[in-house]
Amino acid sequence: MGSDAVYFIGIDVGTGSARASLVAQNGEIKASSTKDTITWRDHHDHRIFEQSTNNIWEQICTAVKEVLKESNIPATAVKGLGFDATCSLAVSDFNANPITVTKGHDIGKNGHRNIILWADHRAEKEAELINSTGSIVLNYVGGTMSLEMEVPKILWLKKHMDPALFARCQFFDLPDFFTYKATGDSTRSYCSTTCKCSFVPDKGWQPDFFERIGLGELIDDGNWRQMGTAHGRVQAAGSPVGQGLTRQAAEELGLVEGTAVGSGLIDAYAGWMGTVAARYTENGQLSAVLPSLDESRHRLAAVAGTSTCHLVQSREGVFVKGVWGPYKDATFPGWWMNEGGQSSTGQLIDFIITTHHAYPDLKERAKQEGKAIHTVLLDVLEKLRHENHVDTYTELTKHIHFYPDFHGNRSPIADPRMRGSIVGLELESSIADLARKYYLTLEAIALQTRHIVEALNTAGHDITSLYMSGGQAKNVVMMQLFADTCNIPVILPKSHSEAVVLGAAMLGRIAAEGVKVGEDMWKIMVEMTPAGTLVAPGASSKVKKLLDAKYKIFRETIDIQKRWRQEIEEASD
């Protein structure tokens, strides 16, 4: 390698792990390291998910040192690093010491568990209060604020914390906490503040909204110290934060003091950055045309792991009922983003498999055959297909209808009270039954993806392709279902697991090179994003009719559930 070669480090903080990757200017990942992080649950309250910034930072530092050692590249060659993280609420005092968020006598005191994870649903009543205000803030979250966002969680903390302890708290969306930890500069990002903290595009904080919901003290005579965005100090993605790495952070990471740190992104937005600029191969041929920035308007990124986020960019703000946004400047200066999502997808697949009566038999068979359990399930489906003399797995499950919102609906209904259902159950508990329910789960997730795409396009977007990343992208059967159900091509990344951390590394390069214009940011994305693979819609006319019919039933299921809920509520009055 040349002595003048430069590299960038991406740091991706996911739901269950922290990853660091060392990336060259052409997007080639030279080394990666992933470390598990701790999540605490409450056995008496299924809504609770908590983590620790100390635990995550320690794992980040270990991972960064490991990639430097593995690659044998000196720290002096690393010119920038970027962070992405889940949209979780991190709380510290003004000296960066963690503040306990666990309900009980220690809440508000210095302690280890200082993150309310994105999946935590404790703030339902607070979200209901916020959604009753009719504030302009709600216009930018699809009309309904999710209890997964930060302001409902902050309000919950105020209700359960001593006022004196609450007053000493800083509140961060998690990506912003780690740029603060790295640089000592608490300047927040547009992505985190606009998407998750109720910072209104072109208008900023809305004091009347915070007064009305009972968080007036955050205004702080317009200084907003606890929110970290006084006097409009909010940064675009990748813009340099502070003076780069502090001496302490550099020592802990094994890097050089002053190394550029790019303003962060929520993990899904980093996945968008690491996928949508890709060229793709179709039938073994690489697309000849380099994608333009304008082409990003037609490419919906789906970052699919435990949950799934759907992201699309537009030149003007598009208001979509039940879909978050539009968010201005969240990724590119002057551009707008909408974000749809499913609260539980990968998690739901695991739940359906592991709670089935036949799961122990499935594990034993997978062990004996030396295969992954998903592969065994596909083997069973293939056998069932032959035995039932049908062409596709969709025909095996045509009389069973699955609604997947076991953990509420994020979009486009924006209703945390929605619940899952299965219609068409039989008295069967075999591996064959588990295989059918597994495929049915994939199908339901695909049908809901179509619902989200239709909501976006009906409101004014023009989505013509789906760019995948995350663990689900390696599920070939599921990806074909997405293409067939949504009737648009799906582009798979070169590596399902590296797209998000690659997006984070791009932030490091943007910071190191001082890039400020969207066109130049896009050029970096095109240069650093490896080519993907196109999966074209391939459903026969018979299967397409079946999927259309199942989609119609899927939509009817939503209306029926809402009507039933209303009838029960009326009967309970």
Largest sheet geometry: 9 strands, mixed
Uncertain stretches: none
Distance between the termini: 74 Å
**What gyration radius follows from the Cα positions, in whole Å?**
23 Å
Keywords:
about 575 residues; 18 helices; about 40% helix; globular
Secondary structure layout:
Elements: E1 7-13, E2 17-24, E3 29-36, E4 40-42, E5 45-51, H1 53-71, E6 78-85, E7 89-92, E8 115-116, H2 124-131, H3 150-160, H4 163-166, E9 170-173, H5 174-183, E10 188-189, H6 190-196, H7 207-213, E11 234-235, H8 247-253, E12 260-266, H9 267-273, E13 280-282, E14 285-286, E15 299-304, E16 308-314, E17 324-328, E18 336-342, H10 346-354, H11 359-369, H12 373-387, H13 393-396, E19 401-403, E20 421-423, H14 431-459, E21 465-469, H15 476-486, E22 490-492, H16 499-513, H17 518-528, E23 532-535, H18 541-572
Parallel strand pairs: 1-6, 6-12, 10-11, 13-23, 15-21, 21-22
Antiparallel strand pairs: 1-2, 2-3, 4-5, 5-8, 7-8, 7-9, 13-14, 15-16, 16-18, 17-18, 19-20, 22-23
Overview of the molecule:
The chain has 573 residues and is an alpha/beta fold. 38% of the residues lie in helices and 19% in strands. A hairpin with a 4-residue loop joins strand 2 and strand 3. The model has no long low-confidence stretch (mean pLDDT 95).
Write a concise synopsis of the structure shown.
The protein is α/β, with parallel strands linked by helices.
